[in-house]
Amino acid sequence: MADIIDGRAIARQLDEKTKAEVDALVAAGHPAPGLTVILVGDDGASQVYVRRKIKSCEKVGIRSNEHRLPADTSQEDLLALIDQLNRDPEVHGILCQVPLPDHIDTRLVLRSITPEKDVDGFHPVNVGRLSTGTGGIVPCTPLGVMMLIHSVIPDLTGMDAVVIGKSNIVGKPVANLLLDAEATVTVTHIYTHGLPAICRKADVIVAAAGAPELVKGDWVKEGAVIIDVGITRIMDEETGKERLVGDVAFDECQHAKAITPVPGGVGPMTIACLLANTVQAAKGLMGVNKDVSSDYHDVPSRSMFTGNGNIPNE
Ligand SMILES: Nc1nc2c(c(=O)[nH]1)N[C@@H](CN(C=O)c1ccc(C(=O)N[C@@H](CCC(=O)O)C(=O)O)cc1)CN2
């Protein structure tokens, strides 16, 4: 049986570390870090995620503020709000939940958040820093993916990693982070020829294609580590209830060394990494760190896992 990489437990550990950092900042006379979350429209899943983000902030002592805007909010009004938040010294992190309604140019909006407050790491400046290995705020899900990988493989040097999916939010940044960690990286997608054979050579597979149960058992070599970023809601015909499935046929992959479940794998790490990024952004803006933005190596940190290579105890 493959080991299950428990994203919830690792996220809790990271939250404890984040809380300790917030406490230390406050004890040193600094204000608590402040995060502002913007939600435009009434997408059900986005509402749930935003609520969770706000609640998680409370748990670690981050001040949070929420702007819920109607679905017909104009792009101009949204940009004006972001401009105001960019200038507000009490706001250290700004996050605009995506997807945004169709009439809004998402790229333009994400570009309008000042890079130092861009706790999602979506701004082109942060993307550029990541792809040149020069720091920057690392997007939350990719950062979480790396921490989950490092929980079972502390040193990726020379390992073969295959990323399935080429999105700006997950696939491309994960590929850059794996390269930074000295892995040999193959970036693929659902149209890649011979995908099963490419995956079969991999020591690490990161599946982020948004294609339910794409990765079959015979795509995976014995002892590989599998990180499943996919989350799709499907109707279970047997039970008549909705359930979540990932991009990996989980039951068929028990010959892997370790695998993330869905739910309970990558998802919880996304929010824990957001909190960690907010603290790093706040430290940068307060001048506590010389380097404004965080290098993921010293944020929630790889060193959290480098002792014995096991999943940390709760
Ligand atoms: N501005 C952003 N928008 C979006 C991001 C993001 O990082 N920044 N990511 C996703 C949504 N997301 C956070 O915003 C997110 C998705 C999933 C989870 C999660 O914990 N998933 C659970 C299952 C959830 C369920 O039951 O429905 C899991 O995998 O265990 C957290 C956050 C898109 N938008």
From TrEMBL:
SUPFAM superfamilies (UniProt xref): Aminoacid dehydrogenase-like, N-terminal domain (SSF53223), NAD(P)-binding Rossmann-fold domains (SSF51735)
Pathway involvement of the protein, from the record: One-carbon metabolism; tetrahydrofolate interconversion
Domain Tetrahydrofolate dehydrogenase/cyclohydrolase NAD(P)-binding residue range list: 139-283
Molecular function GO terms recorded: methenyltetrahydrofolate cyclohydrolase activity; methylenetetrahydrofolate dehydrogenase (NADP+) activity
Record-annotated Tetrahydrofolate dehydrogenase/cyclohydrolase catalytic domain positions: 5-120
Pfam (any one): THF_DHG_CYH_C
Family statement: Belongs to the tetrahydrofolate dehydrogenase/cyclohydrolase family.
Oligomer and partners: Homodimer.
HAMAP family tied to this protein: THF_DHG_CYH
Reported function: Catalyzes the oxidation of 5,10-methylenetetrahydrofolate to 5,10-methenyltetrahydrofolate and then the hydrolysis of 5,10-methenyltetrahydrofolate to 10-formyltetrahydrofolate.
Stated name of the protein: Bifunctional protein FolD
Gene designation per UniProt: folD
